[in-house]
Amino acid sequence: MKIAVIGAGLSGLSCAHELERFGIRPDIFEERGRSGELFPHVSSMMELFIRPNRDPVEYLKSEFNIQLKPLRKMRKVEMRMPGIRRDVTGNLGYFFLRGQYEGSIEDQLCKKLRSKINYNVHADYEKLFKEYDYVIVCTGNSHVAKTLGLWDNLFQSYLRGAVVLGKFEPDKLIMWYNDTGYVYLTPFSEDMASLVLIVRNIAPEELDDYWHLFWENGNFDYKIIESFTLEHISGLVYPHQVGNVLLAGNAGGFLEPFLGFGQINAIRSGVYAAQAVAQKKDYEKLLEPLNTDVSRSTLLREYLNISGNRSINLVTWGVTLPGIKQLIYNSRIDVLKYGAGLLKFLDKLTGERISRQ
Ligand SMILES: Cc1cc2nc3c(=O)[nH]c(=O)nc-3n(C[C@H](O)[C@H](O)[C@H](O)COP(=O)(O)OP(=O)(O)OC[C@H]3O[C@@H](n4cnc5c(N)ncnc54)[C@H](O)[C@@H]3O)c2cc1C
Q: Which CATH number fits domain 3-294: 2.140.10.30, 2.60.120.10, 3.40.50.300, 3.50.50.60?
């Protein structure tokens, strides 16, 4: 079977890895000279979002046969909202290195593959689908889904990232958020970290204002050594297969809209796409649990967007209350599933209406 995979990012590489397990070596096309973004960053994989499973590394290994080595465990999360600061400790997930660097997730996945990656090739699915039995689109963007008329915008955000020097706790994620967006800091080491600002529903030129506001308000003594700006777009795609073309990862609308995390969804959808073509399975059916998770996360995001800072504070206060905090962080409770319900419960508890109109 002749299969083309467009994009050697997380979904494309995971797809190729699964195809190889079925004895198929796809042709992989990657427009960059290497896999991964051109800038380094540290990503987080939080166990909260893969419930009822607990450990993301174990989950990827047992469910998708993908064994990844994290940079380190995430043991602390500090949440900072307007007027509130909350800390959570425990086995909260992992930090991973991302980008074109030794040990990054992309580097680890590339080293597991035997298939050829054709670098510096900008592939066009409209040409490839005539030549190949299947084309799996893993481009990390919405272009193909939009061309096919399958894409519905959910949130259009812009992202400003930076590598900063300073003093950091290596196992701690710091997150600042309010109703316009959020910033997270994830450390490479004790003296270097990546910092990412994501603001929703703004024009690209407005991003600078939010960036400066963040630095002014925070009064940080971090030193920026590198920075970058990207579009961060989240959308709904349906269907995910048209003829012999399948869409996976961000290209299939699997960037979860709650925090803009998409690593696990990219890996999951890449593996499902491979299973669909190799085993002649219904891709849409394989994607059902993933689609459910994305819809739940969309619901939470929409709720917070509409109800503003007050409800963000309320949620943070609620989830870090003694008892509730233990229930959430030390159990296998499915946070996405019950999150929206919890919001409504808190709504009633305080006797004020924060829910959607
Ligand atoms: C700065 C930043 C921080 C993030 N942090 C987190 C985090 O902490 N946790 C988390 O879960 N997620 C995070 N994400 C999101 C996560 O990285 C993405 O959801 C994930 O990488 C999506 O994988 P993908 O395979 O869909 O796309 P990508 O990983 O972007 O890969 C797409 C690949 O396709 C290639 N390509 C595109 N078009 C073509 C073409 N026509 N021909 C050939 N090649 C092509 C690109 O060059 C790229 O290599 C972050 C994203 C960014 C940008």
A: 3.50.50.60
